[in-house]
Design a protein that fits this description.
- By secondary structure, the protein is mainly α.
- Helix content is 76%, strand content 0%.
- The protein has one domain.
Length: 143
């Protein structure tokens, strides 16, 4: 379905830029083009994360015409899932720690920080690269 093909590209780019905004601002000055206050707003990041995650999840079950059903859109879907999940974890990590409480909550949050929050710039750049590759190479069987 071409609708989810386009949504996967759009949300991988939006989610990737949102996730790696600080890194991109340091390297190429992206804040000149985008509203820094808006891109770093917690609610915006949560909404973009949720939408990116949902599009990635649905993209796992839809294939672009001409691709293999299982592997055809796996990389962009996986990138969207990781990017969206990281944005959601980043936004709600304090609530996760409070709900689990005590030492267990601190342990879970430290593991989430190590796996998702620490390399978030890498996930953002990979998401942008997956979107660009998916746009130009949509007929490639493993992308």
């Amino acid at each position: 379905m071409y609708q989810f093909y386009v949504l996967a590209i759009v949300f991988n780019i939006i989610g990737g830029v949102t996730l790696a905004f600080d890194f991109l601002d340091d390297k190429i000055g992206i804040a000149r083009f985008l509203n820094e206050r808006g891109m770093t707003a917690p609610n915006y990041r949560a909404v973009v994360g949720l939408l990116t995650f949902v599009v990635g999840f649905v993209k796992l079950f839809t294939a672009t015409e001409g691709n293999w059903v299982i592997l055809g859109d796996f990389v962009p879907a996986l990138a969207a899932l990781v990017t969206g999940g990281t944005l959601m974890i980043e936004r709600f990590r304090n609530r996760i720690e409070e709900s689990l409480g005590g030492e267990r909550g601190a342990l879970v949050v430290s593991r989430l920080d190590k796996v998702f929050i620490g390399p978030r710039n890498v996930y953002g750049i990979v998401s942008i690269a997956a979107a660009i590759a998916h746009f130009f190479l949509h007929g490639f069987q493993l992308l």
